[in-house]
Amino acid sequence: MRDVVKGWIEASEKMVKVVEKMSERGEMIETRLNVIEVTAKVLEAIGDGTVILPTVERICKVKVWLPFARCLKPLIDHSITNDDDGYDEKEEEGGPTDKMEGEVWQTSEFAFVSIILTLPSMDRAEILTGWFREEHIRYPDLTEAFEVWCYRSKVANKRL
To answer: What is the torsional sign of CA 32, 37, 41, 46?
Structure first.
């Protein structure tokens, strides 16, 4: 797994640039979803501690993949509800594709929270401040990361 994570991490910035330049046609949406699936697994391995990365690399990858995921989720949600052939895939909510997609987003959100909580306080503050500034962002929900950070800060202040 470490080799997969290392390769994916090394290619992250280039991959995001290439995928962002893709058109918004159906097959390209599927490709983007596949990219986020692999990314979710990679981030999960990092967030769970299966693969240990230096702090600088974790910060860099969060700053690369977090904005990508923020932009991609609404795009994919929109493309699914407004399918070109008029067929609304959301009618079959709970189907295998919908369930898998939900798990991918949930996995990546959990991984983002886990990774953010491992970052130094100043970097965490920067990421969470950016999240607060963007009030309209629904994905990922970093509330848990914020609450844990506040709790840890409060406990640290009591110790002083």
So the answer is: positive
